[in-house]
Amino acid sequence: PKPPPARRDLPRRSVRICPLCRSLVAMALRAVALALLFSSAAAFMAAPRATRVPVAVQSDFSGEIGAPKNTPGVGAWDPLGLLDDADEDRFNRLREVELKHGRISMLAVLGHVTTTAGVRLPGYISNSQDLKFEDVPSGLAGLGAVPFAGIMQIFVFVGFLELYVMKDVTGTGEFVGDFRNGYIDFGWDKKFDEETKLKKREIELNNGRAAQMGILALMVHEKLDNNPYIINDWFGAHVDFNAGF
């Protein structure tokens, strides 16, 4: 029999790992180690006793602002059952979220209409990329034109507002969504009586609901055929959206 062929030692290839990848792997390993450490320590801790706190359940919110009042017997319109067996805290949480979304949507619709009309800030949005504000289109298309650093600035600014401004920081709010915090008033307490205050709060709520549907429609029609202002066509006033971009 022929002897087996001699084994040739192939040259070993050295694999280089970039410093960024090495640091990311090290961070991941530290995170896993910490997670295992805390989980093992938690196994020796006594489980806390569950305490049941009686909660006053309120299932009828038909008297709150924003509930339909023109149809007898309708009450609070809740097709998804979000308020089934809900207490007042649950309702207040949902109302605060609805108000925030409505306020953001009203600003979004206003910004969409303003930029579509051609209004822009002066100067550059990015000096390094030689990009001016007037070079950024309107609507969703503008997100693709804004540099990544600008998008991050928006996220950080909105996060700051959410954590430190757009909330009842001082605990002096008179109602859900009252974020005056003792210094943003504009004569609310001096100019209006209680009935007028309720009416204006309901107007804000309904305008916010309409704005949520409005900005959603603008985004959908922009992606469908780049004609978000399709309703203008019905009146013979076509808007050539983002023409020239």
From the structure above, extract its key features.
245 residues; single chain; mainly alpha; 2 strands; 48% helix
What report would you give on this structure?
This protein has 245 residues and is an all-alpha fold. It has seven helices and two strands, in the order ααββααααα. The protein has helices spanning 19-43, 88-116, 141-145, 148-164, 188-191, 194-225, 230-234, and strands at residues 124-126, 131-132. A two-stranded antiparallel ribbon has the order 1-2. A hairpin with a 4-residue loop joins strand 1 (124-126) and strand 2. The longest helix is centred in the last third of the chain and has 32 residues, at 194-225. The N and C termini lie far apart (79 Å). Residues 7-17, 19-26 and 32-56 have low confidence and may be disordered.
